[in-house]
Amino acid sequence: MVGFTTTIPLEVLIAAERRPVDLNNIFITDPDPQGLIEDAEVAGFPRNICGWIKGLYGVVRRHDIKEIVAVTEGDCSNTKALMEVLTLQGVTTVPFAYPFDRSAETLTHEIDKLARHFGVTLHQCEAARVRLERVRGKVHEIDRLNWQEDRVSGSESHTFQVCTSDMNGDVDAFEAEVDTFLAEAGRRQPLRQSLRLAYIGVPPIFADLYETLEGMGARVVFNETQRQFSMPYPVDSLVEQYRRYTYPYDIFTRLADIETEIARRRVDGVIHYVQAFCFRQIEDLIVRQRLKTPILTLEGDRPGLLDARTRIRLEGFIEMLKARKP
Residue 3: beta bridge partners? Predict the structure, then answer.
């Protein structure tokens, strides 16, 4: 079992026949995610540090994970300190960095370094990419059924796309689950929510956001970061795949994708989720200046249900959008 702190070139672990574990997915689906955060705080993590970082620490310790890949460039700026703490506690930590300038040469070096650590070649990783491409294509079909045929909810699309980061640790079992879901979803009648929303930013720490929105008559038809986890662009090489993956790079690369999808999916409004104590909160300034579609910025801190204040803000935003819609 190899844990990782955010999406990495999954093909390396598949080629090495190691079980991949996205620590974020284990944290947020744990029956007691708040307890994992408290484990980190008892160990000495400050209260004013991102809940996700503390949750990842709690997952590693509680599940006794011996080795992790830590993304030190292109994701949370606190990951380096997390890596150092875990190293001190005997966990093998392997750094991986996305180059800020999206340099193919630098990214090739990083992937090759990771592959050599796990004892595989880039050729073997390319073969793994072809295998994963088939599964990812099926998840892209779930996304299409969500925004184009209205047969899949925003929550369902979110879940399957998030799971592509590690394929739930078992590629074959995950593909079978996707096949079963597609067969059932294809027989559904179209959903009735009239408002179409985009969700941008990191996946929510709230447990009931999608269901709450659907109860208000709105449905998410674009999950920005989750879709990126599924590697949505047709490419012919591993390096190009992770160069086009927008999440680890600058906000302007992400915005180009967001603007394209907002137009293509006929989005009425945008929810920009920001995590408390995260540097990405600053990017909200740029998002608001750049996007022309109405935006509601939501901040989350700890896992759990939506609080009353956030629900009221969502209700006001949805009512405003309904009033604008012809």
Answer: 21, 68
Residues contacting 168, CB < 8 A, separation 6+? 25, 174, 177
Grouping H, G, I as helix, E, B as strand and the rest as coil, residue 293 is: coil
CA distance 185 to 202: 26
How far apart are the C-alpha atoms of 255 and 272, rounded to whole Å? 12
pLDDT, tens digit (0-9, with 9 covering 90-100), for 77-135: 899 999 999 999 999 999 999 999 999 999 999 999 999 999 999 999 999 999 999 99
- Distance CA(260)–CA(200), nearest Å, equals 13
Of the candidates 253, 10, 238, 5, the one whose C-alpha atom is nearest the C-alpha of residue 108 is 238
Residue 275 phi, psi (nearest 5): -90, 135
What is the biggest distance separating any 2 CA atoms in the chain, rounded to whole angstroms? 60
Model confidence pLDDT, tens digit, residues 172-221? 999 999 999 999 999 999 998 789 999 999 999 999 999 999 999 999 99
How many whole angstroms separate alpha carbon 259 and alpha carbon 266? 11
Tell me how far apart the alpha carbons of residues 224 and 216 are, in angstroms, rounded to a whole number: 21
State whether residue 198 is helix, strand or coil: strand
d(CA 156, CA 33): 21
Lowest mean pLDDT across 4-8, 93-97, 144-148, 277-281: 277-281
Which tokens belong to 321? 């959008």
Taking Cα atoms as reference points, which of 63, 104, 58, 57 lies closest to residue 76?
A: 57
Q: Where are the alpha helices (DSSP H) in the chain?
A: 10-15, 23-28, 33-43, 51-62, 79-88, 104-117, 122-147, 154-163, 171-185, 209-215, 224-229, 238-244, 251-264, 284-290, 308-324
**111: three-class secondary structure by DSSP:** helix
Place of tokens 């509680």: 62
- DSSP classification of residue 48: T
Amino acid of residue 141: E
Q: 0.90 exceeded by the pTM?
A: yes
C-alpha–C-alpha distance, residues 3 and 139, integer Å: 22
